[in-house]
Design goal:
It comes from Nocardiopsis terrae. It contains six helices and five strands; from the N terminus they run E-H-E-H-E-H-E-H-E-H-H.
């Protein structure tokens, strides 16, 4: 039986959280509320989330700052973030969101069907990744029995290459944000595609290298 995924809803206004819950209830997943960036970070300390819906404009720690903290943590750096904003997103906001590795922006008032469809994709990916980790235990045993040390060495080499790709992409994202006025949108879109591909590769490599205990 597939375990329910956790979805983190972050907004300083209760009425907005109620609207998010109403839109997502039919997915039958665990919906977790947070009224601030600080509260969201506390939830992330002990709970694994499939996706985060994060309000941009909040008192104190805003959505961009909260996202930056999330992506700095090793445990949560790969959790997808969808920014929610009540205002039109300008070019600078897009690049701020991009620097935080947000996967999307949604403008309030949002279409419940669109929101639900986007979140459902990340829930399915999260559950698939959990299944892959479970299967990785038997795969790791096969690697150890059939290939021995060479197989483990290959897995480690792939993991190192994957980390280097992620590091290079991080540097490229910083360059784009620092020079956003001169950067063409096609380049941004291309880097996003590479980023998504690298994330999928990282998941596969992590599975091959061995599941976290």
């Amino acid at each position: 039986m597939t375990q329910k995924a956790n979805i983190l809803l972050v907004d300083d206004r209760d009425e907005n959280l109620i609207a998010l819950e109403a839109a997502l209830t039919s997915l039958d997943q665990n919906l977790v509320r947070a009224n601030s960036g600080e509260e969201a970070l506390k939830h992330l300390l002990g709970t694994d989330f499939a996706v985060i819906l994060l309000d941009v404009i909040m008192p104190g720690m805003d959505g961009y700052e909260t996202a930056a903290h999330i992506k700095q943590r090793e445990k949560t750096k790969d959790v997808p973030i969808i920014f929610l904003t009540a205002q039109e997103v300008d070019r600078h906001q897009v690049f701020r969101g991009y620097s935080s590795r947000a996967v999307d922006f949604l403008i309030k008032p949002f279409d419940p069907w669109v929101l639900r469809s986007k979140v459902e994709v990340f829930v399915e990916l999260h559950q698939l990744k959990a299944q892959m980790r479970e299967q990785a235990r038997s795969l790791q045993r096969v690697l150890g029995q059939e290939t021995g040390e060479p197989g483990r060495d290959l897995a480690e080499q792939l993991a190192q290459r994957s980390r280097q790709v992620q590091s290079d992409l991080a540097s490229l994202r910083e360059h784009i944000v620092d020079n956003y006025q001169e950067v063409d949108q096609p380049l941004v879109d291309a880097v996003r595609r590479v980023d998504r591909a690298a994330s999928r590769l990282s998941t596969l490599v992590d599975t091959l290298h061995g599941p976290e205990e």
